[in-house]
Amino acid sequence: MLLGISGCVSTSDTKQNEIQVGASQPELYMPMLQGKKVGLVVNQTSRVGKQHLVDYLQSKGVDIRFVFAPEHGFRGDHDAGAHVDNAIDQATGIPVISIYGKNKKPDPFLMQQLDVVIFDIQDVGVRFYTFISSMHYMMEAAADAGIKFMVFDRPNPNGKYVDGPILEPEFRSFVGMHPIPVLHGMTLGEMAQMIRGEHWLDTDKSLDLTVIPVANYRREMAYSLPVKPSPNLPNDQSIQLYPSLCFFEATPVSIGRGTDFPFQVIGHDEVHVGSFEFSPRSIAGAASHPKLEGKQATGQDLRHSEIAGLDLQPLLQWSKAFDEKGLTFFTRASFMDKLAGTDKLRLAIEQGTSMQALHQQWQDGIAQFRQQRQPYLLYPDYP
Predict the structure, then answer these.
(1) Mean pLDDT confidence for 237-249
(2) What is the per-residue pLDDT across 172-227, written as a single tens digit (0 to 9) for each?
(3) Which among 13, 16, 36, 209 is least buried, having the fewest CB atoms inside 10 angstroms?
(4) Which of 335, 367, 341, 369 is nearest to 169 (CA)?
(5) What is the DSSP letter of 377?
């Protein structure tokens, strides 16, 4: 079910051509929430203007029974990969249930107490950004419980890019669950429709899905996120570089965790590509014990770089530099393969394959994916 694709706006003083996220169009979803017991999958990005969605819905009399917290927690203040505990939200008194860690799905007993689950989280359009996986598991839980699942859609800041290898089944993990490229060019609302439509849910139950789309949105539009989507993606530049730099997480090289510019620099204490110097430190809620903590790293400053989409040139440069010193670059080879969704990328880089040859490897898969996703797109496609 799709509502509001014609681009209606929620207030009379809003310009007709201004982007309106799903949550900012209450006239489309409030009638479906009246008298319903509601669960929310939200984090710090779940905003209606400057107000958090939880507070906004409570002010409208919506009966919120549970908040489900994904990676980084309900308020977005947990490190990447850090354990998220169940708790009570002090501001509202609503129980907060973790869906990150061992329990990626809520207990069926909790789901049976609900009529509707709303998913409203800002994504960045990259397969290994784990909110897609959290949405997948919540969709399964909603289907099994026989309750409605709603996605309040938001723009994809990397929406004009479709690139990278298609995930192969044997490399499926929480950092990549679906046979899609690294950059899929879809919003989470579109992705929810594809997950259901392609029968990727591990359930024999049907899912009642409704997407509240973004009004006045085109895929190629530049979209600056009003709230940072996670602790180590603090600005537009980090989000633009994230698809290309995240692969360094499988290496000894720092990408700035523990600095004021995470995902915007590259450096190492022994192997140097470039001359920019930085020293990672412990930062509560973002990088408690970052790679190369307390050491001086030397490398590249990409804060003003025009790198966008999927650019593997930095990865190739650093791999070559490590190889020339006889050092292992992919020290976490299995994690690299999970991020890439295949071992072919790592093996090709280790063999010194060129950027052009790497890019050519997945073009057939990209072409097939573009056709496969077509029925699920809610916004004009970008060539």
Answers:
(1) 98
(2) 999 999 999 999 999 999 999 999 999 999 999 999 999 999 999 999 898 999 99
(3) 13
(4) 341
(5) -
For residue 66, give the H/E element and its range: strand 63-69
CA distance 167 to 266: 26
Q: What sign for the dihedral angle of Cα 169, 171, 177, 178?
A: negative
Q: Are strands 63-69 and 37-42 parallel, antiparallel or unpaired?
A: parallel
The 3-class secondary structure across 106-160, one letter per residue, is CCHHHHCCCCEEEEECCCCCECCCCHHHHHHHHHHHHHHHCCEEEEECCCCCCCC
DSSP element (H, E) containing 372:
helix 363-373
The overall longest dimension of the chain from CA atoms, in Å, is 66
Residue 367 CA from chain centroid, whole number: 23
Nearest to 158 by CA among 357, 365, 325, 382: 382
Q: What is the C-alpha separation between 65 and 40, in angstroms, rounded?
A: 8
What is the residue type of 342? T
Taking a C-beta distance cutoff of 8 angstroms, is the pair 72, 45 a contact? no
Q: Which amino acid is present at 184?
A: H
Alpha carbons 71 and 130: distance in angstroms, whole number? 7
**pLDDT tens digit string along 109-127?**
999 999 999 999 999 999 9
Write out the two tokens for 368: 């097939």
pTM of the model as a whole = 0.91
Give strand pairing partners of 300: 266
**142, 149 in Cβ contact below 8 A?**
yes
Tell me the one-letter amino acid at 91.
A
| 215, 25 contact by CB (below 8 A) | yes
